[in-house]
Design goal:
34% of the residues lie in helices and 14% in strands. With 440 residues, it is an alpha+beta fold. It has two domains: 147 residues, Creatinase/prolidase N-terminal domain (Creatine Amidinohydrolase, Chain A, domain 1, 3-Layer(aba) Sandwich), CATH 3.40.350; 286 residues, Creatine Amidinohydrolase (Alpha-Beta Complex). Strands 6-5-4-1-7 form a five-stranded mixed sheet. Strands 9-10-12 form a three-stranded antiparallel sheet. α1 runs antiparallel to α6, α7 runs antiparallel to α8 and α9 packs antiparallel against α10. The protein is globular and about 70 Å long. It binds manganese (II) ion. Manganese (II) ion binds next to loops. Manganese (II) ion (MN) binds next to loops.
Length: 440
């Protein structure tokens, strides 16, 4: 294991050249008073290069080696939190040459040349030690992106573990749905499995009958016959690696004809996008392929009027599919999004403002070792559908027949292999037949 963290740090040090890198892990955040905190989770950059979610720590990385700066807790700590490891033992565990108290950080040679990443929970401390407001250094950010953009073998092993827990959790949710009265009960069944595996959720779970609310955090809705339930939940394993999976299914276990029709279209769009994945393919083309298949299906159903290719070129698909087809996945569910678009967008590329592209989070050629999500959807969002842009193309009479299809999303996580794509979450039911077989 030690070799993994050391190899990652060695690569980073080589990429940034002669400047040392200081990575803060961050501090606990209080909920309502200082002693009652949210669970601690280290900054993903620290976690990636340290391999340990250590609170209030700083890693100094140089080509010659790594030093850990960390304060051993006072003796009173043990009463409330149990024994703490010693600094030297932690340093050995991380493969660092030494552990010094944080007060020594100010004496760190070449501190004035150090590159760092601002960490929101310790901005004050960073400012005090660096003597200036911490800024995201583009050179360091790009070097970190280079390291984290593709996953090494150890990361993939953890991501597979995370995917396994996530699939078991989703399956428990499906099995619980026909006997549940509310979204909250299904959420409980799902998150119970995640917790029982000593994992956490990688992001706030979405378990809702209002799938058109893209990031709904309301769980109180009743499950009524005819409702579709959209479940977007992913586990995070103790080492920090995330999964991000969405399934949508009828609460009664049986799709209505209209739900079947739209579900099939979203599924075909997802499968077509997944089939394109291999190194060298532009992710934006994967997105556009999903848009095309979705639009074709909606034209065939008579919901949209026009030629599918022209409709996509004019961004009309965004009436029903307003977001991007997916994003990078790793230690963060939207991996490295704290760096803005530096990870998601290849150098020199910036976000389009066009309706069909502005929410695309990834715009790079795919590389072997990347893990991406593929998650097309269909949503009826009144504020979007009322946009004058779409009016000439929507057949409102036909759309009226789809009242029981407010939001559908299907999401899997795909590893880019040297020759194609491997769906890490393949084993979770996804076809209508497979879902209906589980929902009994
Ligand atoms: Mn996602």
């Amino acid at each position: 294991m030690l070799g993994v963290w050391q190899a990652r740090r060695h690569k980073l040090a080589q990429l940034v050249g002669d400047s040392p890198v200081l990575l803060w892990s961050g501090a606990r955040q209080p909920r309502n008073f200082p002693a009652n905190t949210y669970p601690f989770r280290a900054s993903s950059h620290f976690l990636y290069f340290a391999g340990l979610s250590l609170e209030n720590a700083v890693l100094a990385i140089e080509p010659g080696g790594t030093i850990l700066f960390w304060d051993e807790p006072p003796p009173s700590y043990a009463l409330w939190h149990g024994d703490s490891p010693q600094g030297e033992a932690l340093a050995a565990c991380l493969g660092a040459a030494a552990c010094y108290p944080k007060s020594k950080l100010k004496e760190y040679p070449s501190l004035n040349r150090a590159l760092t990443i601002p960490v929101p929970s310790v901005l004050g401390e960073q400012r005090e030690i660096l003597g200036t407001v911490p800024q995201l250094d583009p050179r360091l950010a790009l070097a970190i992106v280079e390291c984290r953009l593709t996953q090494d073998e150890w990361a993939l092993q953890e991501m597979r573990r995370s995917a396994k827990v996530t699939m078991a959790a989703h399956l428990a949710g499906m099995e619980a749905t026909p006997r549940s009265q509310t979204c909250a009960q299904v959420r409980g069944a799902i998150e119970g499995v995640i917790i029982a595996h000593d994992c956490t959720t990688a992001y706030n779970s979405i378990v809702t009958t209002q799938g058109q609310v893209l990031h709904s955090e309301t769980y109180s809705h009743p499950l009524n016959p005819g409702d579709l339930l959209l479940v977007d939940v992913g586990a995070e394993v103790p080492s920090g690696w995330a999964t991000d999976v969405t399934r949508t299914y009828p609460v009664t276990g049986k799709f209505s004809p209209s739900q079947k029709a739209i579900y099939e279209i979203v599924l075909q769009a997802q499968l077509a996008a997944i089939a394109m994945i291999r190194p060298g393919v532009e992710y934006q083309d994967v997105h556009l392929q999903a848009c095309h298949v979705l639009t074709e299906g909606l034209v065939d159903l008579g919901i949209l009027r026009g030629n599918p290719a022209d409709l996509v070129a004019e961004h009309i698909h965004s009436a029903f599919f307003p977001h991007g087809v997916g994003h990078l996945l790793g230690l963060d569910v939207h991996d490295m999004e704290d760096l803005g678009d530096l990870a998601g967008y290849a150098p020199g590329r910036t976000r389009s403002t066009a309706p069909g592209l502005k929410y695309l989070r990834l715009h790079r050629p795919l590389q072997a070792g990347m893990v991406v999500t593929i998650e097309p959807g269909f949503y009826q969002v009144p504020s979007i559908l009322s946009d004058p842009l779409y009016q000439p193309f929507i057949n409102w009479e036909k759309l009226e027949e789809l009242r029981d299809v407010q939001g559908i999303r299907i999401e899997d996580d795909v590893l880019v292999t040297p020759t194609g794509g491997e769906v890490l979450t393949q084993a979770l039911p996804k076809t209508i037949a497979d879902l209906e077989a589980v929902l009994v």
